[in-house]
Amino acid sequence: MRIIAGTARGRTIEAPPGRDTRPTLDRVRENLFNMLQARIPDARVLDPFAGSGALSFEALSRGAALAVLGDRDRNALRAEQRNAEKLGFQERVRIYPGDWRRLLARLKAEGARFDLVFLDPPYAMQDLREITEDLRDLLEEEAWIVAEHAAKAEVLVAEAYEQINARSWGYCGVSFYALRREEIPDPSAKVSGQMMQPKGEETE
Asked: From CA 175, how far away is CA 103, in angstroms rounded?
Protein backbone atom coordinates (compact mmCIF):
# COMPACT_ATOMS: atom_id res chain seq x y z
CA MET A 1 0.00 0.00 0.00
CA ARG A 2 1.09 3.56 -0.56
CA ILE A 3 0.10 7.05 0.52
CA ILE A 4 -1.73 8.66 -2.38
CA ALA A 5 -1.15 12.40 -1.84
CA GLY A 6 0.23 15.02 0.51
CA THR A 7 3.52 15.29 2.39
CA ALA A 8 4.05 11.51 2.42
CA ARG A 9 2.91 10.96 -1.16
CA GLY A 10 4.26 7.75 -2.68
CA ARG A 11 5.55 6.36 0.61
CA THR A 12 4.64 2.75 1.28
CA ILE A 13 3.05 1.42 4.46
CA GLU A 14 2.73 -2.12 5.72
CA ALA A 15 -0.42 -4.11 6.41
CA PRO A 16 -0.55 -6.45 9.39
CA PRO A 17 -0.15 -10.15 8.57
CA GLY A 18 -3.07 -12.53 8.53
CA ARG A 19 -6.69 -12.18 7.50
CA ASP A 20 -8.03 -10.29 10.50
CA THR A 21 -7.61 -6.91 8.80
CA ARG A 22 -8.77 -5.73 5.39
CA PRO A 23 -6.71 -2.78 4.09
CA THR A 24 -8.62 -0.21 2.07
CA LEU A 25 -7.42 -0.48 -1.53
CA ASP A 26 -5.37 2.39 -2.96
CA ARG A 27 -8.00 3.06 -5.64
CA VAL A 28 -10.77 3.29 -3.05
CA ARG A 29 -8.71 5.57 -0.80
CA GLU A 30 -7.91 7.85 -3.71
CA ASN A 31 -11.56 8.25 -4.66
CA LEU A 32 -12.63 8.59 -1.04
CA PHE A 33 -10.14 11.33 -0.23
CA ASN A 34 -10.97 13.22 -3.38
CA MET A 35 -14.44 13.55 -1.86
CA LEU A 36 -13.12 14.45 1.61
CA GLN A 37 -10.28 16.79 0.69
CA ALA A 38 -11.99 20.01 1.83
CA ARG A 39 -12.59 18.50 5.28
CA ILE A 40 -9.09 17.17 5.90
CA PRO A 41 -6.91 20.23 6.74
CA ASP A 42 -6.51 20.57 10.54
CA ALA A 43 -9.10 17.82 11.16
CA ARG A 44 -9.01 15.62 14.24
CA VAL A 45 -9.51 12.06 13.04
CA LEU A 46 -10.77 8.99 14.89
CA ASP A 47 -10.19 5.50 13.47
CA PRO A 48 -11.54 2.83 15.89
CA PHE A 49 -10.92 -0.15 13.54
CA ALA A 50 -7.65 1.16 12.16
CA GLY A 51 -5.94 -2.00 10.90
CA SER A 52 -2.83 -0.73 9.12
CA GLY A 53 -3.89 2.87 9.78
CA ALA A 54 -3.97 3.60 6.05
CA LEU A 55 -7.00 5.90 6.21
CA SER A 56 -5.64 7.92 9.11
CA PHE A 57 -2.14 8.18 7.65
CA GLU A 58 -3.60 9.34 4.34
CA ALA A 59 -5.51 12.03 6.23
CA LEU A 60 -2.38 13.10 8.13
CA SER A 61 -0.41 13.29 4.90
CA ARG A 62 -3.07 15.61 3.50
CA GLY A 63 -3.01 17.96 6.49
CA ALA A 64 -5.09 16.49 9.32
CA ALA A 65 -3.97 17.76 12.72
CA LEU A 66 -3.97 14.45 14.57
CA ALA A 67 -5.33 10.92 14.43
CA VAL A 68 -6.41 8.49 17.14
CA LEU A 69 -6.15 4.85 16.06
CA GLY A 70 -7.56 1.83 17.84
CA ASP A 71 -7.56 -1.90 17.21
CA ARG A 72 -7.92 -5.15 19.13
CA ASP A 73 -5.33 -6.99 17.05
CA ARG A 74 -1.75 -6.79 18.31
CA ASN A 75 -0.31 -7.28 14.83
CA ALA A 76 -2.35 -4.33 13.63
CA LEU A 77 -1.17 -2.16 16.52
CA ARG A 78 2.46 -2.97 15.79
CA ALA A 79 1.97 -2.22 12.08
CA GLU A 80 0.33 1.12 12.94
CA GLN A 81 3.23 2.09 15.18
CA ARG A 82 5.83 1.15 12.57
CA ASN A 83 3.92 3.02 9.86
CA ALA A 84 3.68 6.14 12.03
CA GLU A 85 7.42 6.05 12.66
CA LYS A 86 8.26 5.38 9.03
CA LEU A 87 6.15 8.32 7.86
CA GLY A 88 7.35 10.65 10.63
CA PHE A 89 3.85 11.08 12.06
CA GLN A 90 4.57 9.91 15.63
CA GLU A 91 3.85 13.33 17.13
CA ARG A 92 0.42 13.50 15.51
CA VAL A 93 -0.75 9.96 16.24
CA ARG A 94 -2.14 8.20 19.29
CA ILE A 95 -2.57 4.43 19.21
CA TYR A 96 -4.75 2.48 21.63
CA PRO A 97 -5.16 -1.27 22.14
CA GLY A 98 -8.58 -2.73 22.80
CA ASP A 99 -12.06 -2.74 21.31
CA TRP A 100 -14.05 0.30 20.28
CA ARG A 101 -16.11 0.46 23.48
CA ARG A 102 -13.02 0.79 25.60
CA LEU A 103 -11.52 3.35 23.24
CA LEU A 104 -14.61 5.56 23.10
CA ALA A 105 -15.06 5.47 26.87
CA ARG A 106 -11.50 6.62 27.36
CA LEU A 107 -11.79 9.41 24.82
CA LYS A 108 -15.02 10.66 26.39
CA ALA A 109 -13.30 10.81 29.77
CA GLU A 110 -10.60 12.97 28.18
CA GLY A 111 -13.13 15.36 26.65
CA ALA A 112 -11.99 14.58 23.12
CA ARG A 113 -13.80 15.87 20.04
CA PHE A 114 -13.38 14.81 16.42
CA ASP A 115 -14.14 16.25 13.00
CA LEU A 116 -13.90 13.02 11.02
CA VAL A 117 -14.48 9.38 12.00
CA PHE A 118 -13.51 6.42 9.84
CA LEU A 119 -15.52 3.27 10.56
CA ASP A 120 -14.00 0.31 8.78
CA PRO A 121 -15.15 -2.70 10.84
CA PRO A 122 -15.27 -6.28 9.55
CA TYR A 123 -17.79 -6.45 6.71
CA ALA A 124 -19.93 -8.81 8.78
CA MET A 125 -20.57 -5.92 11.19
CA GLN A 126 -23.35 -4.12 9.33
CA ASP A 127 -25.31 -2.96 12.36
CA LEU A 128 -23.51 0.22 13.45
CA ARG A 129 -26.30 1.61 15.61
CA GLU A 130 -24.55 1.03 18.91
CA ILE A 131 -21.21 2.50 17.94
CA THR A 132 -22.69 5.48 16.10
CA GLU A 133 -24.91 6.27 19.08
CA ASP A 134 -21.88 6.06 21.35
CA LEU A 135 -19.93 8.39 19.05
CA ARG A 136 -22.35 11.28 19.43
CA ASP A 137 -20.58 12.78 22.45
CA LEU A 138 -17.27 12.77 20.59
CA LEU A 139 -18.36 14.63 17.47
CA GLU A 140 -17.97 18.27 16.59
CA GLU A 141 -21.09 19.90 15.15
CA GLU A 142 -20.07 19.51 11.50
CA ALA A 143 -18.34 16.15 11.88
CA TRP A 144 -18.72 13.37 9.36
CA ILE A 145 -18.66 9.62 9.88
CA VAL A 146 -17.34 7.66 6.92
CA ALA A 147 -18.32 3.98 7.01
CA GLU A 148 -16.75 1.40 4.72
CA HIS A 149 -18.76 -1.73 3.98
CA ALA A 150 -19.56 -4.31 1.33
CA ALA A 151 -20.98 -2.55 -1.73
CA LYS A 152 -24.50 -3.96 -1.46
CA ALA A 153 -24.72 -4.13 2.32
CA GLU A 154 -27.59 -2.49 4.21
CA VAL A 155 -25.74 -0.65 6.96
CA LEU A 156 -27.70 0.48 10.03
CA VAL A 157 -26.78 3.60 12.01
CA ALA A 158 -28.36 5.41 14.96
CA GLU A 159 -31.45 7.51 14.26
CA ALA A 160 -29.56 10.69 15.16
CA TYR A 161 -27.76 10.58 11.79
CA GLU A 162 -28.63 11.26 8.22
CA GLN A 163 -26.85 9.80 5.23
CA ILE A 164 -25.37 12.59 3.15
CA ASN A 165 -23.63 10.60 0.44
CA ALA A 166 -22.76 7.07 -0.67
CA ARG A 167 -20.45 5.58 -3.26
CA SER A 168 -19.25 2.13 -4.28
CA TRP A 169 -16.17 0.91 -6.11
CA GLY A 170 -16.22 -2.78 -6.99
CA TYR A 171 -16.98 -4.80 -3.87
CA CYS A 172 -16.36 -1.82 -1.57
CA GLY A 173 -19.02 0.68 -0.54
CA VAL A 174 -18.61 3.88 1.47
CA SER A 175 -21.41 5.80 3.18
CA PHE A 176 -21.16 9.28 4.70
CA TYR A 177 -23.18 10.34 7.74
CA ALA A 178 -23.65 13.51 9.77
CA LEU A 179 -25.76 14.35 12.79
CA ARG A 180 -29.21 15.62 11.96
CA ARG A 181 -29.40 19.33 12.70
CA GLU A 182 -31.94 18.84 15.49
CA GLU A 183 -29.59 16.32 17.15
CA ILE A 184 -26.61 18.66 17.44
CA PRO A 185 -26.21 19.54 21.13
CA ASP A 186 -26.06 23.09 22.40
CA PRO A 187 -22.32 23.94 22.50
CA SER A 188 -22.81 25.78 25.80
CA ALA A 189 -24.04 22.53 27.34
CA LYS A 190 -20.92 20.56 26.45
CA VAL A 191 -18.60 19.53 29.21
CA SER A 192 -15.36 21.32 28.65
CA GLY A 193 -12.33 19.10 28.23
CA GLN A 194 -8.72 19.42 27.21
CA MET A 195 -8.16 17.71 23.88
CA MET A 196 -5.53 15.06 24.30
CA GLN A 197 -2.14 15.47 22.73
CA PRO A 198 -0.75 12.75 20.48
CA LYS A 199 1.64 10.53 22.43
CA GLY A 200 2.27 7.46 20.31
CA GLU A 201 1.29 3.96 21.30
CA GLU A 202 -0.45 3.28 24.59
CA THR A 203 -0.05 -0.02 26.38
CA GLU A 204 -2.45 -2.09 28.40
From this structure: 22
